[in-house]
Amino acid sequence: MAVTMRVSEHIKEVQSVIEGSQTSRDDVIATSWARCIDDYHLDPVVMQEAYIVPHTQLKEHRERLDKLIRTAKYGLDALYHQVADHGYVLMLTDAEGVTVDYQGDASLTWELKKAGLYLGAEWSEARAGTCGVGSCIYTGEALTVHQSDHFDATHSPLSCTAAPIYDVDGTLAAVLDISALQSPHPKASQALTLQLVTSCTRRIEMAALMNSFRKEWIVRLSQSPAFLDVDPECALAVDGEGRIIGMTHSAQRLLSGIGNSDWRNPDRVLGARFSEFFNIDINELPALSRALPTEERLLATIHGDLWFAHAIAPQPSSVQRRKKVVSGSLSAIYGDDAKMASLATKATTLSISDLPLLLNGETGTGKEYLAKAIHESSSRKSGPFIAINCAAIPESLIESELFGYADGAFTGARSKGKKGLIEQANNGTLFLDEIGDMPLSLQARLLRVLAERELLPVGATKAIPVSFRVLAATHKSLPELVKNGSFREDLFYRINGATLTIPALRERSDILWLAGQILSGLTDKPVYVSKLAGELLENYPWPGNIRELENTLRFALAFCIEGEIQPEHLPEEIKTGFGRPLCVSSATQELLATLEACNWNISETARALGVDRSTIHRRMKKERIERHYQPQGKR
Predict the structure, then answer these.
(1) In this model, does residue 410 exceed pLDDT 70?
(2) Which helix (H) or strand (E) holds 357?
(3) How far is it, in rounded angstroms, from Cα 625 to Cα 620?
(4) Beta strands in 45-158 (DSSP E)
(5) How many angstroms separate the CA atoms of 10 and 150, rounded?
(6) What percent of the chain has pLDDT over 90?
(7) pLDDT for res 349
(8) How many Cα atoms occupy the beta-carbon half-sphere of 612 within 13 Å?
(9) The model's pTM
(10) 385-389 and 428-433 beta bridge pairing
(11) What is the per-residue DSSP string for 311-353?
(12) In this predicted structure, what is the pLDDT of residue 370?
């Protein structure tokens, strides 16, 4: 009854404000309510639950913001760690209000999804009415929409604080929102939250600018010399001719103020000369480098206002610095295959960051080998590489194996407990193989570890901080598993910062190169593959991929004495099975073995099996058995 009363009162208040009555609400809230009715034709009486876009649309929204998501990842993780214990959810939306990244308490997934504090939720004003994200998008300003500030009474329990993230060209790129299902009644209780979210967006914009203009001059500005080199207030990029080509939002406001223009019109600033705003020429920027003490690096605007400045010179091209397109470890995973070369180049680029990667490929394609190569090419190569096969650990043990257990957590447990595999990966790389087979209950715990960067061993009361890079692999379609409910959607996006798809062995052109690499690892003696045996290896479909190739070469080495693998040294299915059904009956195997023993003499084979020659021919035709090579010495 009390809830119904509050809803009724809220609807009456919205209607009275629209009719022109006085209100204690902030102007930004009152004007947003008016837009909801006049522009979006929303009805405060009609309460609507949060809208979550379809999976295919969400993927498109995420892909458009992929670069920013990667840039913002560290800042978002750190921010969520600050607010998680206070019941807040962190959301990153695009400029249309669609949530493309999300961090929240996994134990409250149902409640958060229902409230729209979830991945894929759309929070535009036209869809949801007055709300933190939607009103932030419209005004371009950081703000808080607290409880009954919301136009739709459905959202009145929420408190949402949002700040815009602007692209380097001054256009709105995204919105960062911190929301809570429950919060203290006074709106002032969210003041600190507003400071946190605006501080985080400023750092994200700074990182985006630094990443985008490495080859240009970057000038960072602060009103305090103590914070200039660690947390400047704004920054802008300047090309070799002294023109402004990029800026953070704070710099956009500063320059617009100096030039007496509207900050919402970035074109008035972009392309203008640096000297139009500051009393300095482009050739004087080196004087603002770190060669001088911070206190002496002063820069005056054309109006005489002083700022402390740090000018960062253009960096050499990363291509020039890195002569090899592919790192050493990754160059060892392929020969002359174009698909693998493209994969290795992409993996080299991605290995530099801590972005989580999803490795896709059929069973046996070498996903763990690729994961190790990425680890060895990364900044974490001096740390451990811990591989976990999620399908191989019994479900009854997987929790303690992954998370470890505290002293005395189990009867008979060793006195000092046991460090779990995740903790063992600290400062290194955690490789989760066959992650599609991980039980749902553990997916929730893993998600929490990835979001909060800390884990709680079984039986422990205090969490342990961890830092690692996540590489995951699967031969299954995770989007399909998400669709049928057997894999968490939020975990999927947490591990899928980028996807690397490994081609099947039958699709590769470097099978013989790969065979040579495997042989060199299996024996110290020089062993080669003959031309005829090589043709058989190249023509076989390899349903088991590299793992099957390795087993085949182990088999061949057992019979190869003179250092050259001939067709007769290969397993029967390799010699006679390409293009045939993979399952071979015992009767067919017997026929193949007898043909081999009789040097493919049909008469001798028929006598050995006690049948007519016509029977042998008929069975060979039925089973599509052909002789694909001539044994040495036989013509």
Answers:
(1) no
(2) strand 357-360
(3) 5
(4) 51-52, 88-94, 99-103, 121-122, 143-146
(5) 9
(6) 46
(7) 87
(8) 3
(9) 0.60
(10) parallel
(11) EEPPPPPHHHH---SS-HHHHTT-SS-HHHHHHHHHHHHHHTS
(12) 95
